[in-house]
Amino acid sequence: MRPPTSTLRRNVLLDRVVCQQQQRLVVPLVPRTTTLRTLITSSRASASTTVPSQRLKAGYFVSNAFLPRVKANGIHDSASSQRSSTVASNSTSTTTDGSSSTTQTTTSSTDLPPVDNTLLPHRRRQAQRKAAAAAAAATAENGTSTPLINPDAPTADLAPDASSQLAAAAASAPADSFKRRLSSMLSLSKPRLTVLVVLSAMVPYALYPVPSFLTSSALDTSLAPSLSPLTLLFLTTGTTLCSASANALNMLYEPDTDSKMTRTRTRPLVRRLLTTKAAVLFAVGCGLAGTLALYFGVNPTVSFLGAANIALYAGAYTPLKRISAVNTWVGAIVGGIPPLMGWAAAAGESATGDGTWRELLFASDGSSLGGWLFAGLLFAWQFPHFMPLSWGIRHEYKAAGLRMLAWTNPARNGRVALRYSLAFIPLCVGLSATGVTEWSFAVTSLPVNAWLVWEAIKFWRLEGHKGSARGLFWASVWHLPVIMVLALAQKKGMWGRVWRSVFGEPEEEDDGEWIYEDEEEGDVVKDVVKGAVVKK
Fold it and tell me: What's the CA gap between 267 and 278, in Å, rounded?
């Protein structure tokens, strides 16, 4: 039989009470006012007290295998060191009696981060300025003298030059190895400067106009080649050897002053990577070989110019650096001689007279003016290039005892750079007027020359400060190759030659007249005609 309904309801209520009591014994009841969010927060707090948190450190983001360069440059170490230094500065130490001491923060000059070469240039300069300020502060406190770091120097962001790299390679090689000697001798030649000298001789050689009598009647004047490969080979080889000889003699003369300047203290003679006897033999051998190659392979005039350049650079410019600031003008003359060598080499191939220096360099018909204009370009370029360069390291020049306008007369240093920057405009116009280039060269070179003049004006007004020295230096670095390329691209008659070589010469119409090349043949024809008339 089925029990009454009231009995069933009472049993269900008893079962529910029993279950609730059992739950109270196992898990404590949560108050009704407690929310789910409060439970989650409290559980996280209790877990943090028992289990240490696993936070992502800075090294997590740079430890990836896809970023070996970042990891190799020490970004992880710098980040961790900054974090540890911050924690150490904020921590407090407790004494033995329970009282807390004050926070102590220790800093030193060695904590400054080294300059990272992978940074952007402006970030690198900022780091250098901070390092310079820290070094100056340390010098003021300790009273010691340290080399002045000038982050505004135009070459502050440049990588080591070829001579320094070759000297480093020689230092890493064994003492008596062939690699050590070869690298040291190549470092003596100043490879980058030698390449610039050779290029400044090749461009005028390529731009020399070929006279019309050298071409055949079937070809136009402009269709004949203007270069002789053999002459060009001797010209480049001889000029390279002469430049290497002059640079080696320069290093032989001033190893003591080179050791006092950061730009030159890595040269091979300063580091004793090569003996003085070996350097002398290298300089003399290159000088003799270079002048002989120019004499027999080109002409005596070019050989004399090469020998004169060695004498001026090693015998006049280098000693004058200790005596007077006039040395800059003598060095500019040295820079202007290689273009004359290239022009005289090309003029010697088409000489109609005895081929002496008078005909090659001072022709009566004015054909040698182009060579002197190129020499003027290289002469004038030395000043807007060297003046800002020397300004950045003027204190080192002064400490080494080398007299430069950058520290003897800074105001005149800026005026000279501006004066010779203005000279480029008439020089470029002169190349067009003398028939070396098209008149379009005078127009296309104007923006480049205006840029150089503008940077020179800022350098003159600010006397090298506020980045004006850096701006003029880099403007001069780009100015010269752009001018040379523009001149080569707009050589007189070059594009006309290209047009005629592609599409050919226009054919002349026949006017119906007989042309007799031989007078006897013409007389025979006339007699035949007269005989025919008499018979009629």
Answer: 15
